[in-house]
Amino acid sequence: MSIAQVMMRPGRRGAIARRMAAFGPLATVAAVCCFLLVLVAVFGWLIAPYDATAIDPLAIFDPSSPAHWLGTDDTGRDILSRLIIGAGPSLAGPALVVVLSAIGGTLLAILAAWHGGWVDAMIARFIEVTFAVPGLILAVVAAAVFGTGFLAPVIALSISYVPVLARVLRAAALKERSLPYIEALRVQGASGWTICVRHLLPNILPLIVVQSAVAFGYAMLDLAAVSYLGLGIQPPAPDWGVMVANGQPSIIGGYPEQSLYAALVIVLAVVGFNLVGERLARHFDIEGRT
Q: For labelling alongside 207, which of 2, 6, 87, 112 has CA 20 to 30 A away?
């Protein structure tokens, strides 16, 4: 490592600290929580203290203890282990919904902005029609037609979230398309593909990130609702929505832990991602005005 690199490192650390301070304490805490949830989802199978599906008839409704930090459920399964392992599908589903819908929404937005005319009009009508269909209803119908599980609700929600993202991205892409530098690139002989990929897409990328962060929380709620209705991931597989549903009968008996802890984790994740998305929106908006 050169002397110049060594001298630059404190400055870089200071810049990172200043950016974190500008991000805001609440949003920083939310971002850290979201990052930890992602780590748990990826490496949960390494840190879970017990098998998430192992039944222990001798440990039914055990209270919190050093052996079971969050207690056990109605079949003696460790609640903490089920929360940790359940983070995988509970976060992977919304992530797939966001990725697929962001790709579809971005393609529609760029096509509408670049071609304009009847192409833009058709895409606008498609967005209006599909936007009127609630994503949760579409996911329930897909699960009823194609069977319960992970894939059908994810694909259905991905389709329903495309117009949500496309409507916002289309407006931004149309504004970007009208700027003088786009016409200058065309005069210089740049192809439409080059302009869209190297200039138009990067300039709306911050908005894509912001919308995806916000959509993640709503997708998590929708998928948790599908699992709660019994149309998503099926028991005994651990999933936060499944845990809320499975623990509901025990609430009357005075054992709300399974439903309560799973619901709290869902709320924490949704609020965290929404806060990050909101702060990113403010950040990019401030930078866009400077």
A: 87
User: What is the mean pLDDT of the segment spanning 176-183?
Assistant: 88
CA distance 157 to 154: 5
Band (pLDDT 50/70/90 cuts) for residue 15 is low
Tell me 229's DSSP state: T
pLDDT of residue 21: 58
Over residues 72-101, the mean pLDDT reads 94
Residue 74 CB: number of other CB atoms within 10 A?
15
Q: 141's torsion region: left (phi>0), alpha (psi -120 to 50) or beta?
A: alpha
Contacting residues for 133 by C-beta, under 8 A, at least 6 apart: 160
Mean pLDDT of the chain: 85
Residues 97 and 105: beta-carbon distance below 8 Å: no
Helix axes 25-47, 3-23, angle to 10 degrees: 110
Of 8, 33, 192, nearest in space to 116 by CA:
192
Domains of the chain by start residue, with CATH:
78-289 (1.10.3720.10)
Shortest CA distance to 273 belongs to which of 15, 21, 14, 29?
29
pLDDT above 90 coverage of the chain, percent:
41
What are the beta bridge partners of residue 78? 72
pTM value is 0.85
Contacts of 146 (CB under 8 A, 6+ apart): 152
What are the tens digits of pLDDT across the range 114-126? Answer: 888 899 899 988 8
